[in-house]
Structures are given as structure tokens and as C-alpha cells.
């Protein structure tokens, strides 16, 4: 009798965010699922590439141009409750030689245009439990202060578990104008920022909404009220 293989061992997904400009194409983020392992990485700036791996064993590795810098043990990907942030980066890039690959049933690419993000953006990859409402909350921007930040693009690999969600976040129009005015006032200049690029500060996001496990074992879902402190 042939030995049965766990279906999860055969699951595959590949998501990428690519920035398009007059200089060419730059890969900002990739997220790949191979069986029960997840591989993520960011944009290459100053010729440097960073990436991380999340393995079935619970081992997590961070790789830099200078070698492997750390290893930790966390919950394996298929044990994630709620939502886990895997990777985040800006839309900055200085390598414009990315060769676009054809999409397929399990391979998707989101192309963003320079002109759509005059004030910068934040690109992130998340792993989420395969729950429809949980994923809908992420796509609606519920955990990210919707009054200030909007989801302007997304990819979802809902055929794997955990579900991989890639989001592009940017300031909404009102917040962008307010920030321009604040910076201009502080600098004593006009609202012209001479190409100053910025994006949503990830430290200002409500990460406690994103799958935080409380002491009693309950998991705070996106949009749920904060508990404690």
C-alpha cells in the first residue's frame, strides 16, 4: 500500500509586490509557501537583500547579506492563531532590473505604479487563520486605523493554510495633507516637500489587534476591543 502524504505538505503559493517606474521594475516583497514552510523577503536597497523563513518545526531564521543573524522557536505556521506579521517593508528600492514572471493559478503579482504613492507606502505579508471574516477584516484595514490609513492593494493566497495575505497600506488623502502641513509648518517652508518620502509608521499600527493571545488563552481578532492595560 502506498504511503499517504499529508496534503499540506504539497501546498504551494507565491505572492509578489512589484513597483513600476520609469527606471524599470523593482521587487518589493515576496511570500512563498512550500508545504508547511513559509519564505518571505523584502526589497533590495543599496544592493542588500533580506529574507526570513518560518518552518514547520517552529524554527524561524532571519537572513541578511552578512549571513544568518538569528534563529528562534515560535509556533509552526499551521498553529498560528489569529494573524501573524511575517514581513513588512517600504516602497523604497534601488534595483530596477526585476524580470516579471508570468502569473498562474498559485502565483500572483501585484504591480504598483510610482504615481499612485506620492507619500510612500508600507507593504506587508501576514499569515492568518483560514477564517473568512478574519481575512475580510484585514482587507478592510480594520487593524490599521482606517481613519488614517487605507488598504490600496492586496493579494490573498486562500488555498493554503495559514492563508497568506499581502497588503499595501498608505495614508488616506486627509491624513497625507495634514502630515504635509505639519512638516511644512515645522520646517517653516511651503507644503512642497521636495520629494520627501514617508509611509505609515508600523510602530504606530494597532498590532495588539492582530492575533494577540491573552493570558486566558483568548485571541484578540482584528476589530475587537483591546483588553487589559
Describe the protein's topology.
Blueprint (H helix, E strand, L loop, with lengths): L11 E10 L2 E11 L2 E6 L8 E4 L4 E6 L2 E7 L9 E8 L16 E7 L8 E7 L3 H8 L9 E9 L5 E9 L1 H15 L42
Parallel strand pairs: 1-8
Antiparallel strand pairs: 1-2, 2-3, 3-4, 4-5, 5-6, 7-9, 9-11, 10-11
Task: Supply database-style keywords.
single chain; mainly beta; seven-stranded mixed sheet; 10% helix; disordered C terminus; 37% strand; 229 residues; 11 strands
Structural notes for this entry:
The chain is mainly beta. It has two helices and eleven strands, in the order E-E-E-E-E-E-E-E-E-H-E-E-H. The strands form two sheets. A seven-stranded mixed sheet has the order 6-5-4-3-2-1-8, with no helix packed on it. Strands 7-9-11-10 form a four-stranded antiparallel sheet. Strand 4 and strand 5 form a beta hairpin. The C terminus is likely disordered.
Quick summary of this structure?
10% of the residues lie in helices and 37% in strands.
- Helical amount among residues, as a percent range? 10-25%
* Sheet with the most strands, sense and barrel status: 7 strands, mixed
- Spans of at least 5 consecutive residues whose pLDDT stays below 50 are 188-214, 219-229
Tally of individual helices: 2
Largest sheet: spatial strand order: 6-5-4-3-2-1-8
Q: Using the alpha-carbon principal axes, give the shape.
A: globular
Series of secondary-structure elements, N-terminal to C-terminal? EEEEEEEEEHEEH
- Proportion of beta-strand residues: 35-45%
Q: Mind telling me the C-alpha Rg? A: 19 Å
> Mean pLDDT score, rounded?
75
**Which structural class do the helices and strands define?**
mainly beta
Number of beta strands: 11
